[in-house]
Design goal:
Keywords: Hydrolase. Belongs to the RutC family. Its EC number is 3.5.-.-. By secondary structure, the protein is an alpha+beta fold. The protein has one domain: RutC-like (60s Ribosomal Protein L30, Chain: A, 2-Layer Sandwich), CATH 3.30.1330.40. The chain contains 2 helices and 6 strands; from the N terminus they run βββαβαββ. It has a 6-stranded mixed β-sheet, covered by helices on one side. Helix 1 runs parallel beside helix 2. The protein is globular, with a radius of gyration of 14 Å. The protein starts with a strand and ends with a strand.
């Protein structure tokens, strides 16, 4: 099983981790922040807007890996505030209206630059 790193200019990047790693028929997407890849700035003030940007970034990385949102098996989300859970779900269901992936979440320990959410996924390649 060869490990292949995935990168795209259509999602934020970091020198500290790969946007995704593809191996064994799976794509492991690193946590995506609500950051516009063109500006490097956090997008949106509401949890819905920030969730949308996270999932836009996830979709871009999956596309670069030859996968897609409909192949997502598992998702992890980190929220800054528990009160944002309902609003996050409002946006989430728009992206995964049928057969949503398994999912788990936790509280985001830090909030750099107003970030309220981060989303990571595992998908079929």
């Amino acid at each position: 099983m060869a490990k292949q790193t995935v990168s795209t200019l259509d999602a934020p990047s970091s020198p500290f981790f790969s946007q995704a790693v593809r191996s064994g028929g799976l794509v492991f997407v690193s946590g995506q922040a609500p950051v516009d890849p063109a500006t490097g700035q956090v997008v949106g003030r509401t949890i819905q807007q920030q969730t949308r940007q996270c999932l836009t970034n996830v979709r871009a990385v999956l596309t670069a890996a030859g996968s897609s949102l409909d192949k997502v098996l598992d998702a992890t989300f980190l929220l800054a505030e528990e009160e944002d859970f309902a609003g996050m779900n409002e946006e989430w269901i728009r992206w995964f209206p049928v057969d949503p992936p398994a999912r788990h979440g936790a509280r985001l320990p830090i909030r750099p630059g107003g970030m309220r959410i981060s989303v990571a996924v595992t998908a079929e390649a």
